[in-house]
Write a structure and sequence with these properties.
The chain is an alpha+beta fold. Among the domains are: 16-157 and 167-179, no CATH class; 308-406, Cathepsin D, subunit A, domain 1, CATH 2.40.70; 483-712, HIV Type 1 Reverse Transcriptase, subunit A, domain 1 (HIV Type 1 Reverse Transcriptase, Chain A, domain 1), CATH 3.10.10.10; 796-882 and 904-920, Ubiquitin-like (UB roll); 925-973. It has 30 helices and 28 strands. Strands 3, 4, 5, 6, 9, 10 and 11 form a seven-stranded mixed sheet that branches. It has a five-stranded mixed sheet with strand order 26-25-24-27-28. It comes from Paramuricea clavata.
Length: 975
């Protein structure tokens, strides 16, 4: 069977007859190579040797549309459908007969061009004598001009000698050509007579605006194509006549050049009232101008000077632009229901109790409310629009408050001055006006100078920044609540193979119901959640946690619902160890916390419905990212990192942000800190990201960050972690010991020789060891607590300084410390398993070196030389030999050490290695005694069972032996 020949496919290129011929040839070739078709047979039916396989192959090759034709349009019987030659013949007849005139006249296509194109297509048809009539009918039905179509149809109503006149294609084409030429001439004459100026704005391809040059420019009195002031040559130029900016002297309307009379200003007034006809459509593409103005007839007060803005509504996968009229006197945004359904057919309209009151005391009841996420200059804003039912043609309205927030309006309330009317004669009007202008300008300049002086005097110098100034100067940043959304709306990607789940409702304690309802109402007011009445596929339970201040935190519990189907956007969340090397030479720190961190991320409509949860009085869904979803931490870390990108002296883990200052002196570090902090606060103010004023740790040499204490000397464990370990109760089972050891391991980098101290506790976690808590374990348990409480401060790693490793190994554990300038950077310890304990001592010492180098590879990479201190003299001699001359079993380990150019030495005197000086500890003796005790206990059990003694007596014997063994262990400890 042929396997290299490609499977035939029915490809459609527009020429169905030709496509069918190609498909039939490919199918026969494929069947011939598979021995399904034999050309040696006489008839076509006999050539198809294996008709069933050929029919199956033919059906598999057909496109969905061709398969529909095969089933319903060929008219074959059930027996004929099993014969390949019958099916192919029917397909040839169907697609061959479908060739016809398919060209219709287009608006931009001339009559001559259409005639040439359509005759080329008709050459492939087989209509013979009907060709002229069919082309004529196709031509008339495809005309874009209704007037021409009616005229050509009417030509067939004439009668000649009692018979109906027959209109030929040639006559129709000649009439159409005459009509085309007449229409073009008439359009030219109409354009020449036009006296009004029309401005056409193209928002699709950023093309230049076109305007008639008939009238002079309002600002320069010249002739140019652009109609906006910023494109005028006089823009930002100073007038030589009046001294103001924005126009030339020849176009000056102030006293001196253009007299103050109404007659002299009439041309400029007429130009200002010029009527523009703007044709703007809502498009999905980029809009060049976001704000434009249309002026209508000034005689109609309601149509005078309307300003429009283009709002970019951000959707999940694309954005949509909506034209809205700016109404500075309006206090709410409105959108007509017909425009909403036209451009957002699937959007959900929420219920509202609001009533719109007009200036004419007319009340309008909205249909509901919708929320749009609008983008403006890189920022995202959530705007509420009331849906109203108004006559067609009315645009959406943008309120003055939101227009100011978006930057379309700039309101200067402090620049409004009172004006007193003074009666003077006409001749002194100009002179008095000049004097008043000069006095007013002088007062304004003095006021601005005083304000600038007073403001600059309050701004501290770098290095003298205070917390009071930061909270006062950046008061908007530290306001409670949420700012602008952090990035575009979030979309939660779900696995379609996971079936949706409705979690069973959990009952809330009666004493908490009122507090829960108040918390839910507060979230609704803050637009974090909204009630849900429609059916949803997923339904989670509500999770209630209590904050340290006594308030309730409402979360969802998606562990058994959407978390099982969410596709996580993998983004690595950094650890504190990865951030510490950036703090080299850091001496001053400030910690800030993002206010309502997760709630700064907006959810799109589909993702919002996934977060539906049950409350005491109904269902709710989140509009912002909730706590608890599996993709939340990674998504927030990515957005927060993008927000802080480009800022120096700033690190973050989740919503905790650390600002630090580096320098050789405290003064340099303080200035660097203030510069970095101001840069962060400026970005937060620019993008409206809110920070918590209650959680700020301002400009200190010691701050708490992610469970650690960052100081100017180094890093230390956080008090909360140490206190949690000290207050842990004594374990009562193997799982309790494992929990305790896990918490201790979190702080192991601060504790040298930790593996030695926890050895008795670690032995209790073995599967084949019975859990028996003795004085040895109690002593080790308390020693670990005291040892962690007195842990060492580690200095920050400096990539420019050389490193030294101190390693040591005992029979049960190995340990090491990374040093720079003689100060520890981090500690490590490791308990040997049963196989590693059988190593020789020289192999254990080499294993300690290799383990430390592997663990601290991120610190050692790139170092030209590494100094390793060990107390095992043979290692120093071995590493001086070539690798080929080493005979012991740890040759692979020595090759790793040589690969990083390590220099192994045995220090002398005070520099003697002390990392694991517990090599001669009491652990072997303890193991021996515990082994003897275990054997003795088993022996006593056997004897008791044989003697038939009671269970109480057996327990008394065991207790007696335990006390005896504990006494021996205590004596060993004292030695």
């Amino acid at each position: 069977m042929a396997t290299n020949l490609p499977f035939p496919t029915f490809k459609s290129t527009g020429d169905d007859k030709h496509d069918m011929e190609i498909f039939e040839e490919d199918l026969k070739d494929y069947c011939m190579l598979n021995n399904w078709y034999d050309l040696s047979k006489s008839t076509e039916e006999e050539r198809w040797i294996k008709a069933d396989k050929a029919i199956a192959c033919l059906r598999a090759c057909l496109t969905p549309s061709a398969r529909t034709v095969y089933k319903y349009s060929l008219g074959l019987s059930e027996a004929e459908q099993k014969k390949p030659h019958s099916v192919l013949q029917a397909l040839r007849e169907y697609y061959g007969a479908s060739i016809g005139i398919s060209g219709n006249g287009k608006n931009a296509e001339s009559i001559s061009s259409w005639e040439s194109r359509i005759r080329n297509q008709s050459a492939q048809c087989e209509y013979e004598s009907f060709e002229d009539e069919l082309m004529r009918d196709q031509f008339i039905s495809g005309l874009a001009s209704e007037q021409l179509r009616v005229k050509l149809i009417g030509k067939g109503d004439r009668h000649k000698d009692g018979e109906r006149a027959k209109v030929t294609l040639r006559e129709v084409v000649e009439v159409a050509k005459t009509f085309e030429a007449t229409t073009a001439t008439n359009q030219l004459m109409k354009t020449a007579r036009e006296t009004q100026v029309y401005e056409q704005v193209n928002y699709n391809n950023n093309t230049k605006q076109k305007q008639s040059n008939r009238n002079p420019c309002f600002w320069c009195s010249g002739q140019h194509k652009q109609t906006r002031q910023r494109f005028c040559p006089a823009y930002s130029k100073r007038c030589n006549q009046c001294g103001t900016l924005g126009h030339f002297a020849r176009a000056c309307r102030n006293a001196g050049n253009v007299p103050g009379s109404v007659e002299s200003r009439k041309p400029y007034m007429q130009l200002q009232q010029q009527q523009y006809a703007n044709q703007v459509e809502v498009e999905d593409n980029y809009v060049n101008e976001e704000l434009f103005m249309t002026d209508h007839d000034m005689n109609k007060q309601e149509n005078a000077r309307k300003f429009f803005a283009h709002l970019t509504v951000v959707k999940t996968n694309r954005s949509k632009v909506v034209k809205a009229q700016i109404d500075s006197s309006s206090t709410c945004n409105t959108i007509p229901v017909n425009i909403l359904h036209q451009h957002f057919p699937n959007i959900k309209i929420e219920k509202t109790k609001a009533v719109i009151q007009t200036y004419g005391d007319q009340q309008i009841k909205p249909k509901g409310k919708v929320t749009f996420c609008c983008e403006r200059k890189g920022k995202l804003h959530l705007l509420d629009f009331l849906v109203v039912d108004v006559p067609r043609g009315k645009p959406p309205l943008l309120s003055g408050r939101d227009a100011e927030i978006l930057g379309y309006l700039d309101i200067h309330a402090d620049e409004i001055h009172s004006v007193n009317e003074v009666k003077t004669d006409k001749n002194s009007n100009v002179h008095n006006q000049k004097i008043q202008n000069e006095q007013l300008n002088h007062q304004n300049s003095e006021c601005k100078v005083q304000q600038a002086t007073s403001r600059s005097s309050k701004i501290p110098q770098l290095g003298e920044l205070t917390k009071e100034f930061v909270l006062e100067h950046y008061d908007k940043v530290f306001q409670p609540g949420k700012g602008n959304p952090l990035g575009a709306p979030m979309h939660i990607e779900m696995d379609p193979d996971i079936r949706p789940v409705h979690a069973p409702r959990r009952h809330i304690p009666v004493a908490k119901v009122q507090r829960v309802n108040e918390a839910l109402e507060k979230l609704c007011e803050g637009r974090v959640i909204v009630p849900v009445t429609q059916p949803t596929n997923w339904l989670s339970n509500m999770l209630i946690t209590e904050k340290p201040n006594g308030k309730l935190r409402i979360c969802i519990d998606p562990s058994q619902t959407i978390n099982k189907a969410i596709k996580r956007p993998i983004y690595t969340i950094p650890t504190i160890e990865e951030k510490l090397p950036f703090l080299t030479k850091a001496k001053v720190f400030t910690i800030v916390d993002v206010s309502e961190a997760f709630h700064n991320v907006v959810l799109d409509e589909l993702s919002s419905l996934l977060t539906t949860f049950q409350g005491p009085n109904g269902r709710y869904r989140y509009l912002r990212m909730p706590f608890g979803i599996s993709s939340g931490p990674e998504e927030y870390q990515r957005r927060q990192r993008e927000f802080l990108e480009g800022l120096e002296g700033v690190i973050n883990i989740a919503d905790d942000i650390c600002i630090f200052g580096c320098g050789d002196t405290d003064e340099q570090a303080s200035k660097d800190h203030d510069k970095n902090l101001i840069a962060l606060l400026d970005r937060c103010s620019e993008r409206d990201l809110r920070l918590s004023a209650k959680k700020i740790q301002f400009k200190a040499t010691s701050v708490s960050f992610m469970g650690h204490i960052l100081t100017d000397k180094g890093v230390a464990p956080g008090p909360s972690k140490v206190i949690a370990i000290q207050e842990m109760p004594k374990p009562v089972d193997r799982n309790g010991v494992q929990r305790f050891l896990g918490m201790c391991q979190y702080l192991s980098k601060f504790c040298p020789k930790l593996s030695k101290i926890v050895l008795p506790l670690r032995d209790l976690t073995r599967i084949n060891v019975e859990f028996i808590w003795t004085d040895v374990h109690e002593s080790a348990f308390n020693s670990v607590k005291d040892f962690i409480a007195s842990s060492t401060i580690l200095q920050y790693y400096d990539v420019t300084l050389p490193v030294t490793l101190q390693v040591d190994a005992s029979d049960e554990a190995i340990g090491g410390v990374l040093l720079q300038n003689g100060k520890p950077v981090c500690f490590t310890s490791y308990t040997l398993d049963s196989t590693e304990r059988n190593y020789g001592q020289i192999e254990k010492e080499c294993l300690a070196i290799v383990t430390c180098m592997s663990k601290w590879h991120q610190y050692l990479y790139g170092k030209k030389s590494i100094l390793v201190h060990t107390d095992h003299q043979p290692l120093e001699t071995i590493f001086r030999k070539p690798l080929t001359n080493i005979e012991f079993n740890d040759k692979p380990k020595t090759s790793i050490v040589e690969h990083v150019l390590a220099h192994v030495v045995v220090p002398e005197g005070e520099s003697k290695v002390s990392t694991c000086d517990n090599c001669k500890d009491m652990k072997p003796e303890i193991d021996r005694i515990m082994s003897m005790f275990t054997k003795l206990q088993l022996k006593q059990d056997e004897e008791s069972q044989r003697a038939g003694e009671s269970e109480a007596k057996v327990e008394s014997l065991v207790s007696e032996h335990i006390s005896k063994m504990a006494t021996e262990i205590e004596s060993l400890t004292l030695q």
